[in-house]
Design goal:
Elements: H1 2-20, H2 22-51, E1 62-69, E2 74-77, H3 81-90, E3 94-108, E4 114-121, H4 125-129, E5 135-136, E6 151-154, H5 156-163, E7 173-176, E8 179-186, E9 207-210, E10 226-231, H6 237-254, H7 256-261, E11 263-269, H8 270-274, H9 279-310, H10 312-320, H11 325-361, H12 376-402, H13 406-412, H14 422-455, E12 465-470, H15 480-495, E13 500-506, E14 519-521, E15 523-524, E16 536-542, H16 546-550, E17 554-557, E18 571-575, H17 576-582, E19 592-599, E20 603-615, E21 629-634, E22 643-649, H18 653-667, E23 674-678, H19 679-722, H20 724-732, H21 737-766, H22 782-808, H23 812-818
Parallel strand pairs: 4-9, 6-8, 16-21, 18-20
Antiparallel strand pairs: 1-2, 1-10, 1-11, 3-4, 3-7, 3-10, 5-8, 6-9, 7-8, 12-22, 12-23, 13-22, 14-16, 15-19, 17-20, 18-21, 19-20
Helix pairs in contact: 1-11, 2-9, 2-11, 2-12, 9-12, 9-14, 9-19, 11-12, 14-19, 14-21, 14-22, 15-18, 19-21, 19-22, 20-23, 21-22
């Protein structure tokens, strides 16, 4: 009770002190609000991505299973249907293993035709994730495979948008791709697909259907399934990996295809794999805002030290009257805690504003994790950062009280003890400058990376290009010939639209996610069996005109023509990287290549094709890291849907869209245009993470510059005030105003230079941590460091010059009279 009463008295005293100096309180609270608010907001984002469990049942027991081909040094590869079935039958470490593949489909019947993203899954997919539909049920084993009932599960968004949220939709028949399917369930509103980025499973899948074929009968080297497994009770991830490694060894012994691939399996914690590329960026962002709050604390410490100087007489008298150092320290720390608490309450508004803006500015890579909302972790972090801030900026004044000499203080009377806090202030400036230098260097490196990304040639020209996706219903376009003819008719109609200069189509466009990526091994003539799976390339089915429409450069040979159809010579176009690796120093045109093609009767099969052209390499998946080489085949010889049309025109998308819809309707009124967007949107999405990181680092650097400026100004101003008598004596003895300015600047900038030197050492130590985010610039970049140092020196000089000029105008007589 006594301790509580003491705390209440300390609290009353703290509030009274803040009322006496409202300007100091407002400045301190505002400074803390920026630092603490940014920390709370960023931690809420980190929490939503790295700490919150995935939206599945007992997600800590889930693992993602990847195939790895040791013969081609290829890791994180999808699996084949037979491999999935072998894992299911042989593994005891997993309760269940399920597979998914992303594609699209078209709803017809009631309402306008609509193309949606579709997940083709094994029947046990939802039960493996331990998620249940909100309405109806999931799939049963009898609904998977050849000859099974046509069943479908809807997303909640599609359920509301297309079917009006009518619960009677369950067990009703709807039409997907022209075929009747029965709605057996509707997933909950909060359910979403959260998968690793390289799994090519979009988070906004709108419907799920079971596989219609027997996946165990598909080719063993047709790898397209993304696998998820649920660990059996008591089984650890390492035990599961050991078991599936042994299974892979058995399969390599038993099947030549797996031996040639050098097949191996790995099981990774699902959540850890989902965030593996995001974790470094988010932790780096959290480190940056922690540096901001340290800068804010240093500034508030400056203010409190100044206030402590003004209260020197009060503290001295209280000490003389018997107040112990620990009692005074507790009082000062209470004042710091009150400031930090008020700053934290104000920071909540700052954090709220940032989090409201977050869904708008966040990169696409974070969209699957939903909104960042406060929970107990965020509240605990807010409390921790508040207490931490109070201790950090309150420790300097508290230490000054503990080390106070009562006799000297009484001798000084009402005057400040000159220089008593000078070392602490200079130390704070050194820390501020070091942290500011780190933030400026990081901002500079990321900004240069962003500029490099903006200037980077992706291998195509996105300006003036509009794209949209189509899927042809198999009920009306039953054969590959009919599908190819329909695409040709569509391309002819689109080319006739006014203002259109080129039209083409492709099964996959750069940075697209639907359908899932298509890639496989390739090899030229004369390759030994042991090397036939050593090289992988992305494959695309395209129409004549696609290269021209997307602005892909033809290096050698020719484009496809309308004569490249089924039954004619099987041909392909390769990119220059593949040509250079496969036939170094030789002409690739005319060479034979073994690749995967799509047969009208047999599906995916291996075939020999003749290279008829070479085109420039396209960055298909990532702008700032390596991409696989590309192989293009004629759509008429390897039909694959859905297909994306690429239209080049100088007309804007809003102006052109009605005529594009009219051209498609002239061929088939039931074909909906899906994902209608400019090609530049794909590029912007690919750049989004780099751009957001650069913009945030620039904002943090600006805040750091501002705080450093305020900190240096405060220190130099306090030093000038403390040295008023000394300056007066110097000027009375003949010192010129210029000499006084030089003295003040020298004293002020000396700490700045030491801080910059410390910051440079720290940046050299921490630079490798940035390497994974950089492109076109090295982590240790002298130019960026020089610009950061000069910027801080300029800020420090400007902050020091104002009090230096004030000192130069000191009247010697007034200064001596003050003494």
């Amino acid at each position: 009770m006594l301790l509580f009463d003491t705390f209440l008295r300390d609290l009353q005293t703290a509030l009274r002190q803040l009322r006496l100096r409202p300007s100091l309180a407002i400045l301190a609270i505002t400074t803390l609000a920026v630092g603490i608010g940014a920390n709370i907001a960023v931690f809420a984002i980190v929490n939503s991505v790295l700490l919150q469990p995935l939206p599945y049942g007992t997600p800590d027991r889930l693992a993602i299973l990847w195939s790895n081909f040791t013969s081609g040094k290829q890791a994180r590869v999808p699996s084949s249907g037979p491999a999935l079935m072998e894992l299911r039958s042989r593994s005891r470490s997993f309760q269940q293993i399920a597979g998914i593949w992303g594609t699209s489909g078209t709803f017809t019947g009631e309402g306008e035709p609509e193309q949606v993203r579709v997940g083709m899954i094994t029947a046990n997919f939802f039960s493996t994730l331990q998620v249940r539909p909100k309405l109806g049920r999931g799939f049963v084993p009898e609904e998977e495979g050849r000859g099974s009932a046509n069943a479908i599960v809807l997303s909640y968004g599609l359920f509301l948008r297309r079917f009006g949220g009518d619960a009677a939709i369950v067990n009703r028949t709807v039409y997907l791709n022209g075929r009747p399917v029965t709605v057996v369930g509707v997933m909950p509103r909060e359910f979403r697909m959260v998968w690793p980025a390289d799994a090519s499973i979009p988070e906004d899948i709108q419907a799920w259907i079971p596989f219609r074929e027997d996946i165990r009968e598909l080719p063993r080297d047709q790898n397209y399934l993304r696998l998820v497994g649920r660990l059996s009770p008591g089984v650890t991830a390492s035990e599961a990996n050991a078991e599936i490694g042994a299974i892979a060894q058995q399969l390599r012994t038993q099947y030549p295809e797996y031996k040639d691939q050098g097949l191996d399996f790995s099981a990774l914690d699902f959540h850890a794999d989902v965030v593996r590329e995001l974790r470094p960026a988010l932790l780096g962002l959290l480190g940056a805002v922690l540096a901001i709050v340290l800068l804010a604390c240093a500034n508030v410490a400056h203010l409190l030290l100044t206030r402590s100087d003004e209260r020197q007489l009060e503290i001295t008298v209280r000490t003389a009257l018997g107040a112990s150092p620990s009692r005074l320290v507790r009082q000062l720390l209470t004042e710091s805690l009150v400031l930090a608490t008020l700053g934290s309450l104000t920071a909540s508004a700052v954090a709220f504003g940032i989090l409201r803006l977050y869904p708008i500015v966040r990169p696409q890579q974070l969209a699957a994790f939903g909104r960042a909302q406060p929970d107990w972790r965020v509240l605990l972090f807010a409390l921790a950062i508040t207490v931490f801030s109070a201790v950090v900026f309150g420790i300097a004044p508290a230490l000054a009280v503990r080390r106070q000499n009562l006799v000297e203080s009484l001798k000084a009377g009402a005057r400040n003890v000159v220089g008593s806090h000078r070392l602490r202030r200079r130390t704070l400036v050194v820390v501020e400058m070091a942290l500011g230098f780190l933030l400026l260097v990081a901002a500079g490196l990321l900004s240069r990376t962003m500029v490099s990304a903006l200037r980077l040639n992706p291998g195509f020209e996105s300006a003036h290009v509009i794209t949209f996706q189509l899927a042809l219903p198999a009920t009306r376009y039953a054969t590959a010939t009919m599908q190819a003819q329909a695409v040709r008719a569509l391309q002819t109609k689109l080319a006739a639209v006014a203002g259109v200069s080129a039209v083409g189509a492709s099964s996959h466009v750069p940075f697209g996610t639907i359908p899932a990526n298509w890639y496989g091994p390739y090899f030229p003539e004369g390759t030994g069996a042991e090397e036939q799976n050593s090289q992988l390339a992305d494959q695309r089915s395209i129409t004549p005109g696609y290269f021209r429409a997307l602005g892909i450069t033809t290096v050698a040979g020719r484009d496809f023509t309308d004569d490249d159809v089924q039954g004619h010579l099987q041909v392909a176009v390769v990119d220059e990287e593949l040509a250079r690796k496969t036939w170094p120093g030789r002409d690739a045109v005319g060479q034979k290549l073994n690749i995967e093609v799509i047969s009208p009767d047999e599906g995916f099969v291996r075939a020999w094709v003749t290279v008829v052209g070479v085109v420039g390499h396209v960055k298909d998946h990532a702008l700032l890291r390596g991409n696989r080489s590309q192989i293009y085949v004629p759509l008429a010889q390897s039909v694959r849907f859905p297909i994306t049309f690429v239209v080049r025109s100088d007309r804007g998308i809003a102006d052109l869209t009605p005529e594009l819809r009219q051209a498609v309707s002239a061929v088939d009124k039931d074909l909906p245009l899906a994902n209608l967007r400019p090609m530049s949107a794909y590029i912007e999405n690919a750049r989004s993470q780099t751009t957001v990181m650069a913009r945030l680092s620039q904002a943090f650097a600006f805040i750091a510059l501002l705080l450093c400026c305020v900190g240096v100004f405060g220190v130099v101003s306090a030093a000038v005030t403390q040295q008023t008598r000394e300056i007066g004596i110097r000027m009375a003895l003949g010192a010129t105003p210029t000499a006084v300015v030089r003295m003040v600047l020298r004293n002020g900038l000396s700490s700045v230079i030491i801080g910059l030197a410390l910051g440079e050492v720290l940046s050299l130590m921490l630079a490798p941590l940035l390497s994974s985010f950089l492109f076109g610039v090295k982590p240790i970049d002298p130019l960026t460091m020089l610009v950061a140092a000069l910027s801080l020196l300029a800020i420090a000089f400007g902050a020091s010059y104002i009090p230096a000029r004030r000192a130069a105008g000191t009247d010697p007589m007034q200064a001596l009279r003050w003494e």
